[in-house]
């Protein structure tokens, strides 16, 4: 009997197939990302806390503390990942997330919800960069790194699909058992822990901290040095500073509306919490479709003009929500999400193009992400004050007017020539290829995800759209190698 020829090992060359280990890594990563980010409570957390007796000031105060905590945990959790390894970091994050989702079940009080969101911030900070770092290093160890972008995008897409399917069920399930959204979220997080435990150990010098745990201090020092360089780069580049300012404004506006205000807006128009999951799912689809199709925007306008136009569209929809009925508001929320989806990829490219050739790109975007969260913290406090006074319509109008004024100032600075030389100097500078520690390689920012972002920590609730867009902000959250860029 003639022996069959030995089958060549796949994954040893350029555009190759996947090895068995690479397939296992991808499958388990898909399961981890889907389950870890599946926060069933996202469509109803505001109504749930109101039912527990919390005031608007307390609810939005907790959100503000959450954003600040996420900022403060960015660097320490990066150092932890460097020291204990990305795989162990994923396991720790899954444990923390499981406990976080059970906190409101054990204690539906201000203290319980505060502990819940602080733990959510810790869990998401532990995993947001480590998950992508593990996937990247694992595929590279198997010489299958050319499959990384597709694997990352597939994981985001599966997470988005899960939210679209599950979120409309939250209202009926909550009617059957009030704590169901949090219990199901804890069960999902526990499932992600199982996936993390089953992840294979990485081997080789590029396997991240799983095999090299002694350089966390050096990497932390390198990050701090890069952060100083990044801040000096912003100070010396007016064009980059202007573009980043525009990005912070868009991010804050979209996050506060899509995550913090969409439930109060629906309730104010008589749309019960049983329907909130379906509305959030529709917003997620609208944002994801737009985020994946930036080419639908005409080339008659330059990118910076498109971002301004889309920002005005966001402001206009906010103001219009005060005038329409329930169905009009739902349509406007979907249009708001679509405009956000169009704006983020264009804005992200503007920032990447504005970064000078030898600047620490990933660190610059990480610093920008921290600023984003800090501004969101202030905006959450203001939103809570407006809602506590019963002035939701005034909040929407003032947000729209503030956006218009900020865009006016931006355009005046742009046309005054303040950044003209700097802008011309960067024009034609090709952005550095996005490598392991650089922005643009991850699969998508937020999407209404940060609820599950990608951005989707609570902050990722605005990031499900990242599923279709590798350049989206919420996936660009990073601190330093070996973790992937991050923003949540």
Structure explained in plain terms:
- This protein has 488 residues and is mainly α.
- The chain is 67% helix and 0% strand.
- It is built from 18 helices and no strands.
- Helix 3 (56-84) packs parallel to helix 5 (110-127) and helix 3 (56-84) crosses helix 10.
- The protein is globular, with a radius of gyration of 22 Å.
- Mean pLDDT is 76; it is low at 1-15, 205-209, 211-217 and 425-488.
Quick take:
The protein is mostly helical and 488 residues long. It has helices at 20-36, 45-51, 56-84, 86-106, 110-127, 130-141, 148-166, 170-176, 180-198, 216-236, 238-268, 276-291, 303-320, 326-354, 361-388, 392-415, 420-426, 447-450. The chain has 18 helices and no strands.
Spatial extent as radius of gyration: 22 Å
Estimated share of beta-strand residues: under 5%
**Percent helix among the residues?**
55-70%
Q: Quick check: average pLDDT?
A: 76
The chain-level structural class is mainly alpha
- Biggest sheet descriptor: none
How many distinct helices?
A: 18
Number of strands: 0
Shape: globular
Cα(first) to Cα(last) distance is 60 Å
Write down the secondary-structure element order.
HHHHHHHHHHHHHHHHHH
| Low-pLDDT segments, ≥5 res | 1-15, 205-209, 211-217, 425-488
List keywords for this structure.
mainly alpha, disordered C terminus
Question: Would you spell out the secondary-structure blueprint of this structure?
Answer:
Layout: H1 20-36, H2 45-51, H3 56-84, H4 86-106, H5 110-127, H6 130-141, H7 148-166, H8 170-176, H9 180-198, H10 216-236, H11 238-268, H12 276-291, H13 303-320, H14 326-354, H15 361-388, H16 392-415, H17 420-426, H18 447-450
Helix pairs in contact: 1-6, 1-7, 1-9, 3-4, 3-5, 3-10, 3-15, 4-5, 4-6, 4-9, 7-12, 10-15, 11-13, 11-14, 11-15, 11-16, 12-14, 13-14, 13-16
């Amino acid at each position: 009997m003639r022996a069959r020829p030995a089958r060549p090992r796949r994954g040893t060359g350029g555009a190759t197939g996947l090895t068995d280990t690479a397939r296992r890594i991808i499958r388990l990563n898909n399961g981890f990302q889907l389950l870890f980010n599946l926060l069933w409570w996202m469509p109803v957390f505001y109504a749930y806390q109101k039912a527990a007796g919390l005031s608007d000031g307390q609810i939005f105060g907790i959100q503000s503390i959450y954003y600040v905590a996420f900022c403060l945990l960015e660097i320490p959790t990066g150092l932890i990942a460097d020291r204990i390894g990305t795989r162990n970091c994923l396991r720790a994050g899954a444990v923390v997330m499981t406990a976080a989702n059970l906190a409101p079940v054990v204690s539906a009080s201000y203290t319980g919800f505060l502990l819940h969101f602080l733990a959510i911030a810790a869990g998401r900070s532990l995993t947001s960069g480590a998950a992508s770092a593990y996937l990247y290093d694992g595929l590279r160890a198997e010489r299958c790194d050319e499959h990384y972008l597709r694997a990352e995008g597939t994981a985001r897409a599966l997470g988005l699909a899960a939210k679209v399917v599950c979120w409309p069920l939250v209202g009926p399930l909550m009617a059957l058992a009030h704590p169901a959204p949090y219990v199901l979220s804890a069960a999902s997080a526990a499932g992600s822990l199982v996936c993390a435990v089953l992840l294979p150990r990485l081997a080789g010098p590029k396997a991240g901290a799983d095999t090299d745990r002694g350089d966390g201090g050096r990497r932390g020092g390198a990050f701090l040095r890069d952060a100083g360089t990044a801040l000096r780069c912003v100070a010396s580049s007016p064009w980059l500073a202007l573009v980043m300012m525009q990005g912070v404004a868009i991010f804050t506006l979209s996050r506060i509306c899509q995550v913090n205000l969409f439930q109060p807006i629906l309730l104010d128009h008589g749309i019960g919490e049983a329907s909130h999951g379906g509305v959030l799912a529709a917003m997620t689809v609208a944002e994801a479709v737009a985020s994946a199709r930036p080419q639908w925007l005409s080339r008659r306008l330059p990118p910076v003009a498109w971002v301004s136009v889309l920002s005005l569209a966001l402001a206009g929809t906010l103001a219009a929500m005060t005038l329409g009925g329930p169905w009009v508001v739902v349509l406007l929320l979907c249009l708001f999400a679509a405009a956000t989806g169009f704006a983020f990829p264009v804005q992200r490219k503007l920032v990447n193009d504005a970064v000078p050739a030898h600047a620490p790109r990933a660190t610059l975007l990480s610093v920008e992400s921290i600023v984003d969260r800090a501004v969101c913290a202030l905006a959450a406090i203001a939103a809570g004050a407006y809602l506590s006074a019963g002035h939701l319509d005034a909040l929407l109008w003032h947000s729209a007017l503030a956006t218009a004024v900020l865009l006016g100032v931006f355009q005046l600075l742009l046309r005054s020539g303040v950044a003209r030389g700097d802008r011309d100097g960067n024009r034609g500078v090709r952005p550095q290829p996005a490598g392991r520690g650089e922005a643009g390689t991850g699969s998508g920012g937020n999407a209404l995800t940060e609820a599950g972002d990608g951005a989707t920590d609570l902050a990722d609730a605005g990031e499900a759209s990242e599923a279709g867009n590798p350049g989206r902000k919420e996936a660009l959250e990073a601190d330093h190698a070996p973790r992937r860029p991050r923003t949540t």
